[in-house]
Recover the amino acids of this structure.
């Protein structure tokens, strides 16, 4: 039996797409999927996008382990994924353009 506490989250970024709002501020969408080391999907994981000012946006992975952040301001982010029984995953210096 595998020990879930020793599994690390693997973070798969599916894509970052840029668009422009009416105020001419560049925003983007960040999509991804949360899986474990055996590529099993992680449902209900809390995923956070933390910008350089420390502002946090939070979403939860869906039934496919997927998540989406809409309208992120362009910049550098730290992405964190967490779920009970798993080790916190953190990816720093994620550039959103």
């Amino acid at each position: 039996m595998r020990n879930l506490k020793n599994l690390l989250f693997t973070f798969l970024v599916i894509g970052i797409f840029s668009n422009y709002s009416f105020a001419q501020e560049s925003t983007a969408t960040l999509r991804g999927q949360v899986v474990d080391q055996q590529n099993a999907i992680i449902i209900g994981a809390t995923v956070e996008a933390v910008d350089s000012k420390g502002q946090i946006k939070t979403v939860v992975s869906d039934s496919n382990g997927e998540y989406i952040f809409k309208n992120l301001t362009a910049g550098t982010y730290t992405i964190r994924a967490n779920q009970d029984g798993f080790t916190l995953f953190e990816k720093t210096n994620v550039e959103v353009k």
